[in-house]
Amino acid sequence: MEAAIFMSGLIVILFVVLIFVFLLRESIVFFTNQNLLGVLSGKDWYPISDPPRFGFLPLILGSLFVTLGAIVIAVPLSMAAAIYISEVAPHRFKNIFKTGIELLAAIPSVVLAFIGIVALSPFIKNIFNLPSGLTALTGSIMLAFMAMPTIVSIIEDAITSVPRSYKEGALALGATHWQTIRRVILPAAFPGIIAAVMLGIGRVIGETMVVLMITGNAAIIPTSILQPVRTLTATVAAEMGEVIRGSQHYYALYGIGLVLFVVTFFVNLMADIFLHRKRY
Amino acid sequence: MLFISAGCGRTKAVQLKGSDTMVNLGEAWTEKFMEENPSIAIAVTGGGSGTGIAALINRTTDIAMTSREMQEKEIKLANQNGVYPREIKVANDGIALVVSPQNPISKLTLKQLSDIFSGKITNWKEVGGEDKRIVALSRDRNSGTHVFFLENVVKLGNKKNKEEFAKEVLMMPSSQAIVEEVAGNSEAVGYIGLGYLNKRLKSIAVAKDSASPFILPGDESVTNGSYPIARGLYLYTDRNPGIDATNFIDFALSKEGQQIVKQMDFVPLKNL
Do B251 and B133 fall within a single domain? Predict the structure, then answer.
C-alpha cells in the first residue's frame, strides 16, 4: 500500500519533469536561433510579419502589470477577510464565511471575463475617462477576485496554526485583541502570509481567459495600469491555433510557455519554502 | 473509466474547421445537410482561418473554412506534409468598418483607414470628427479577417508595403467582442464581416481613393464589386477528401446552400 502511494507521488513529479522537458525541447530551437537577451528585451511582437520580430518584453511587462495590480488589490482585502474569519467572526458564522469565499473560487473564469467585458470595462472607461475600458486595471480587478479565495484560505490557515499560547500569553499580559492580532499573531503567521501571496501570484500569472477577453491584447510597453496590455498567456491562447507546426512562430510560442513555466515554478518554490519555514 | 466507443458500423464524422467569420454559416449548412443525409455526421469548429489551415496541413480536419486564400508558404508546408490543397470558393463577404451610432463620422477612404490602423492618424479630428483619441479594434492574428484586412487595407493591397497594425490597436479574440466594444464606445472603430452587422452599430461608407464614390457595404455592393473591401469565402480540402466531404461541398454550392449563404447575411456566388 505504501508502495502504491509512493509510486503515485513519483508519477506526479514525473509528469511535471516531462512537461518541462517537452517545453524545453520545443523552445530550444527558437532560443538557439535568436539571441536570448534580444528576445527577452525586444520591444516588438510582430510574429507574422516578414521578417518576423519576436520581442517578449511587452508580453512580460503585460503579465507583470496585471499580476502586480491583482495582488495589490487582493492582498489587503484577503488579509482583512482572513483576520475577520479566524479571529473576529462569531464561531457559528466562521464556516458560512469560509464557504462563501470558497464559492468565489467556483465561478468559472470565463464568466468573470464576461462580467468584466460587459459591466466592468464600461465602468472603468467612464470613471477614468479613458478611450477604452479594456485595460490592465480591468484585468487586475477580475483577477483579484480569482486570487482571493486562495489567498484568504491560506492566510486563515496560517493564522489558526499560530499556537494558542501566543495569543493567550499576549491577552494575559494586558494586550487588546487588536494589539494581539497585529503584534503577535500576524508576525508569527508571516511565513504563511508570504506563501499565500506567492500562491496568489502563481494563480494569477497563469490565468488566460480573463486576460484574453478584457485586457485589450495590445502589445505595447505599458506605462500605466490604465493602458491595454498583452499578457504571455493570452498571446499563446490567441496565436497557438494559427501557427504552422515547425515555423519560428510555433517555437516562439513554446518559448513563451517556457518563460511562464519557469516563472510560475519559481514563485511556487518560494511559496513552498516560506510555508515550511517556522518563525516560532 | 475508459470509454470505448464501439465502431457499430458508423463512419467517422467529417471535420469542418476554421474561420470564425464562417463558423455560423458552416453550422447552418451542416444542420440542413444532416437533415437531408441523416447517416452523415459533420463536426463544425471555429478558431480562425489560420487554425483551419493549420489543421488541414496537420491532417486533423477534412475541410478547412477560410476567409482568405492560402498563402504560398502554407501551400508549400502542406505539400511537404503530403497534403495537396484544393480551393473552392463558396461565397462572398464584405468587411464592414463599424463605429458607434454616436460617432459623427460616416465615410472614410482606404488611405485614411490604413493610416488609422497603422497608427498614423490617432485622433478623430484628423478625419473630420470630434477631438477624441481613436480606439482601433482588430481581430487577433489567428483570424483570416485580420490577415485580409492587413494585406488589403493596412498595406493597401501592396505585399511589399511595410505597414503593420499599430501596437496600440486592441486585438480582440472574436468578431462578437469587437461588436460589443464598438457598440458601447463612441471613440472606437473596428472591422467585422457583414454577417455581424446589427442595429447597435453604424457602418462606414468606404471609397477606394478620394476621387471615387463612398460606398456602404451590402449585398449588392459586394457582388457588383463596387465596395472596395470584399473577399471570397473558401473551403479547402486535400486532393481526395472522401465522398461525404465532397457531397457536403456540393451541397454548399447548390441553390439550397447558396440560399443559406444569403440567410446568414453573406453574399451568394453570382450565376447560380
Answer: no
- Quick check: B81 and B58 in contact, CB under 8 A? yes
**Residue B210 and residue B188 in one domain:** yes
CB atoms within 10 A of CB B222: 22
Give the integer Cα–Cα distance in Å for A206 and A268: 12
Q: Can you tell me the ipTM of this complex?
A: 0.76
C-alpha cell at B216: 456602404
Residue A202 phi, psi dihedral angles, 5° rounding:
-60, -40
CA distance B89 to B18: 15
The whole-model pTM stands at 0.82
- For residue A250, which residues of chain B lie inside 8 Å, CB to CB? none
Hey, is B231 helix, strand or coil?
strand
Residue-number span of the structural domain to which B247 is assigned: 2-92+232-263
B272 occurs within a structural domain:
no
Residues of chain B with C-beta less than 8 angstroms from the C-beta of A48: 141, 147
* Grid cell 454577417 in the structure block, residue: B195
pLDDT digits (tens, 9 = 90+) for A70-110: 999 999 999 999 999 998 889 888 889 989 988 888 999 99
Please give the residue of chain A at the shortest CA–CA distance from B176: A213
The answer for residues whose C-beta is within 8 angstroms of residue B6's C-beta and 6 or more apart is: none
CA distance A102 to chain B (A): 29
